[in-house]
Amino acid sequence: MADNDRHRPLREDVRRLGDILGATLRARGGEELLGTVERVRALAKGSRAGGERDFEELAGVLSSLPVGRALEVARAFAQFLSLANIAEQHHRVRRRRAYRLAPDAPPQPGSPREVFGDLLRAGVERGTLHATVRDLEIELVLTAHPTEAARRTTLQKHRRVASLLAERDRDDRTAGERREIDARLERVVLELWETDEIRHERPTPIDEARWGLVVVEQTLWDAVPAFLRSLDRALEACTGQPLPPATSPVRFASWMGGDRDGNPNVTPDVTERTVLLSRWMGADLFRREVEALREELSVRAASEELRARVGGAREPYRELLRGLRDRLVATRREVERRLGEPAAAAQAEPLRGLDDLLEPLLLAHRSLEASGCLELARGTLTDVLRRAASFGLTLLRLDLRQDAARHAAALDAVTRALGLGSYLDWDEPSRVRFLARELESRRPLVPRGLAASPEVRDVLETFRMAARQPPGALGAYVVSMAGAASDVLAVRLLQRDAGVDPPLRVVPLFETEDDLRRAGEVLDRLLRVEPYRARIEDRHEIMIGYSDSAKDSGRLAAAWALYRAQENVVEVCRGHGVRPTLFHGRGGSIGRGGGPTWLAIRSQPPGSIDGRLRVTEQGEMIEAKFGIPGIALRTLELYVTGVVSASLRPERDAPPEWRAAMERIAGASSAAYRRRVRDESAFADYFHAATPIEELGHLRIGSRPARRRPGRDVAALRAIPWVFAWTQMRVMTPTWLGLEEALRQALDGAERDTVLAMYRGWGFFRSTIDLIEMALAKTAPRVAAQYDARLVPERLRPIGEDLRGRLETAVDVVREITGHERLLEHNPVLRRSIDVRNPYVDPINLVQVELLRRLRDDALPDDERALVRHALLVTVNGVAAGMRNTG
Predict the structure, then answer these.
(1) 103 Cβ contact list (under 8 Å, min separation 6)
(2) Per-residue pLDDT for 594 more than 70?
(3) Active site amino acids
């Protein structure tokens, strides 16, 4: 089928949704509104086709609109972009189904059938393949970083649109049924138009945690067993052996309600309530599954083992599962009482851990197999067992995270109270000796009634809270800004003193470029501390942070620092006989480490993925990857096949001359980036003038403050709003700044052939350049120039002109390296998606510029200021929808 024919249904969906939106605009705003929107759209398309006069007229039209009409125009374009996004996601699911339905089609690229077949043909033994898949440890960690600009209410309606598009695709629909679906689509679009898309209250950490649980309940709960059934079939077809019943290569965790680094709203009480809410929903979801199993397993054939458990019950499985159901009900009621809600007395013992849930289910599975009911054993019962393996009893294992400096301050309060002096004044060897000695001691460390600051009490109470949680409720304890062995030892000691048993694994997070370069050295010192080494069971997890490293030194230099850090920590761990697990703290945008799943996994250093991977899924990427069941299935598939492929057929290491060139290029790129961002005194002033960074504080999209500390300097700002603000004005500075200078020097000098060979033959370098190319394709220098012209003082405008000139150089060097005449010409689907969106994003940007100008006018009346601010936040949502990520 021709490419145009394959994508014709997508164009029809977009056209249909656009027509429905147009009819809604006419009905709710009249012909004048629709006429204004159509005029703006025509000018934007003409502008993108090369019409400079069209662009000038477009900017003039939008700048002259009254605030109310500008708000309506921005909303119209933003809603169209959101609807187009839904249509594109649905089309991905449609294309996947069409691919799998074609009788003569080969396996889909990246699918288990394709990857497993390739591995076997490459010489991997069947037993090795099966063992690798069986023993995979992939954990996806959902985080609530403020990168999801859309309200939950809006996202729910978006899911309904996707569901209706799927219903409409069915071949057996009658004409009347299709008309009814169209009518329902019209109603949802009207609901969207009449719904306020702006949050008026900042979400609390509990709100964020509830949203994470909604993602599990509405999508992942069914997507995971569906994916594992397909994985099971592919594995058995390729190796002759299925997955064990209570096995899942993919598990889930969360930072929502546990990430207290820089977020004073996450208290010990909030974390404990988060665990309770998760446990309640887990008990409720498993109760429903057990009830369904009781309906299904009315069979009488049973093993002696099962009959011995249930006595003479005529329906042994129902009797067994009745007891499990009652324990799940009791678990739910226990949680309700702890939350302070009324709850009836339970008739059974609550479940204490995952083993209490698994034991009767595994007994039923063994009995069905022993009785010859193999299909029943491998049906719904196996789905429930795999859900238990994936989600545990609390659905999302909750990580805790805190800054290393907070633990050091707590220990300082303790040592001062004990008369030992100031822990903060000790050098690193002194700290390590003290911590190692205390780890082996059995006496309590923290004195009773310790007089301490609220910050210290919060740290100590967090550990006491952790000690109260049931087994499996908590995951890792992540130490932000880890820069020394003592940062890890401190957390281990504080856990021991609080009675956290078994202790949470302590995960150092290396974030800045300097910390990444020293990660191997720090880990080596840590693993030489015998009292610590003896307690980790020959395993260690290390987290690497993409966001702050890129903010610190630019995307290209950060990518190399991350690559080298992984190599170093893997080498150190293996030297100590320890199995490493790398935890990748990726953001949604390319500037913060985001990008296609398969590409990201396959670009890691050889040997760094050995069947184990943890990775964050942040903000809007959770909705993009897991919001629609079909997309969630594909996401899970790519994670598993990517890790299997990287484990069994890792990329070859780069030759020394490539690595040496990369070291020089990364150093030059980092230096160029820092000269602009750190050393240029007026750069921060330009950033605050040209971007909506200050106004973004009014967009209540996350519970955490945007700054680590007060101040206008870039260092005080978190990585998320840093990237978010540049994305809004369409320059994407953090993604490419620095590389344009470094790569231009390399291409114009003696390393030209080396750089071109690196792109052709080194997966890491190729994927890095390809990701940067994607980001560059979304930039819009002409739009960015409007921000300068309307918002930036004249003395600062040379900085913007310089940035846009450097952006042009970045585009040129990337095209030179890739051999592409036009960005993304090798990816026509993505190229077309961006081209289609641009005429709809550009007007929103131009409205945003004008609204920012008005909002910064001190003479603006207060009543009008509120309306302008509301309209501005609508444009922020609209640009986010058009760019497909925010931060």
Answers:
(1) none
(2) no
(3) 145, 551
